[in-house]
Design a protein that fits this description.
The protein is an alpha/beta fold. Helix 4 links the parallel strand 3 and strand 4. The protein has helices at residues 3-9, 11-23, 32-42, 110-125, 148-154, 217-235, 273-294, 313-327, 345-349, 386-401; strands at 48-51, 58-63, 77-83, 134-140, 167-174, 183-185, 188-191, 193-202, 206-207, 242-251, 257-258, 261-270, 297-306, 309-311, 332-334, 354-360. Helix 2 (11-23) runs antiparallel to helix 4 (110-125).
Length: 408
């Protein structure tokens, strides 16, 4: 039997696990129910399991039983990552396994990621004697803005097998963008760096009928929002990419009261460290300049968050080749451009060569460009991709442990 056959034999159990995780989503770094579920699913597989101290992570190491071969220095290892956390989104998808937690939903498909990683652990554990090395299973909380990967790296996930992994891989399901069952990725930058801009404008409050006696922070804040968009287009080369979106703007309590302060928060996405630094300086300059013109004061804080997710070219070519064997050549494609979403798997790829792949999991038989996107309350995912994702993760580990990739 092939690894895909092994994964298909687990279909009923994989679907059941995914539905249980979907019904009981948890947010952030503390996912006690999810952690208990994962530990229960891994019980009896003969894995070396540790749990996080600063978060509810699970690290499991599978020791292969085959000889790495002559010339091997230490035992090779491969890391597979699956994130586990959900989002503060009220689900609007009518399914029997709908979220039972008000205002919380697996809108990014992490319930599928966790399930597929459990499935890969089960498939590989049944074939441990064939593995000429070890596999690290990284069950990570807090991907959605909590930087759970940093917590796990600090606690030693990359050294859990004793040797640093020679490669690291992750799958991310998509509810749109690409047809169901297709696998896509690209070498180099795959996803953007994500940073935060936090601005508070300090003025002097007063009566709305007499703005000349106050220093109104609201017009200054509004002008900053618009000026930042103009400055971005005049600061960043047309051949580079940057996105700045203000998602939160707050000021005042009543229509005839000029408040003392106004504040807004923005997300900034870039694909190059030099552009990232340029945009950070530009944000500070624009906010201070507008504030000075309005006679108010601005505090502008630019916070670096997730770095660019960069796929190793050699590992990406290898991973897409394995995906072709699992899914068929006509269902594997190389993306022409990166996407502006961000990922803390970037932390792992900064330490270990590897690749992230996207797996189409949309349920609607419609144009992928029109289907609800991840993070939408209407995002839905097809259980039918669970065996495919499970087999792909397992195959990446087995194939990578058995070969050395040529590098220039």
């Amino acid at each position: 039997m092939s690894l895909l056959d092994d994964a298909r034999a687990l279909t009923e159990e994989l679907v059941d696990l995914r539905h249980r995780l979907h019904r009981h989503p948890e947010i952030g770094l503390e996912l006690p129910l999810t952690q208990r579920t994962v530990l229960s699913e891994l019980d009896g597989l003969g894995l070396e399991i540790t749990t996080g101290r600063s978060c509810t992570s699970v690290t499991a190491v599978l020791r292969g039983g085959a000889d790495p071969g002559p010339g091997a220095v230490g035992r090779p290892a491969v890391l597979l990552r699956g994130d586990m956390d959900a989002l503060p989104v009220q689900e609007e998808v009518e399914v029997p396994f709908r979220s039972e937690v008000p205002g919380v939903m697996h809108a990014c498909g992490h319930d599928l990621h966790t399930t597929m990683l459990v499935g890969a652990a089960r498939v590989l554990a049944s074939r441990r004697e064939e593995l000429p090395g070890d596999v690290i299973f990284m069950f990570q909380p807090g991907e959605e803005g909590f930087d759970g990967a940093s917590s796990m790296i600090a606690e030693g996930v990359l050294d859990a097998a004793g040797e640093r992994p020679q490669a690291a891989y992750a799958l991310h399901v998509m509810s749109s963008l690409t047809p169901r069952g297709t696998v896509i990725s690209r070498p180099g930058p795959l996803m953007a760096a994500s940073d935060g801009l936090f601005v508070t404008v300090h003025g002097v409050g007063g009566h709305g009928s007499s703005p000349h006696t106050a220093a109104d922070p609201i017009p200054a804040a509004c002008e900053m929002v618009l000026a930042l968009q103009t400055a971005l287009g005049r600061s960043v080369s047309a051949f580079d990419s940057a996105v700045l979106t203000v998602g939160s703007l707050h000021a005042g309590t009543k229509r005839n009261v000029i408040p003392d302060t106004a504040c807004f928060d923005a997300t900034v996405r870039t694909f190059d460290p030099a552009v990232r630094d340029l945009v950070a300086r530009m944000c500070e300059r624009v906010c201070q300049g507008v504030a000075s013109a309005h006679g108010v004061r601005a505090e502008a804080r630019f916070e670096a968050e997730y770095p660019v997710t960069v796929n190793d070219p050699v590992e990406t070519a290898f991973a897409l080749g394995v995906a072709e064997e699992i899914s068929g050549r006509d269902r594997v494609m190389q993306m022409p451009d990166p996407i502006a979403g961000a990922e803390d798997f970037s932390r792992v790829l900064a330490e270990v060569p590897g690749a992230m792949l996207f797996l189409g999991a949309m349920t609607q038989d419609t144009d992928p460009e029109r289907a609800p996107t991840i993070h939408s309350p209407r995002a839905s995912f097809d259980d039918g991709v669970l065996p495919q994702g499970t087999a792909l993760l397992a195959s990446l580990a087995t194939r990578r442990l058995s070969c050395e990739l040529a590098r220039d």
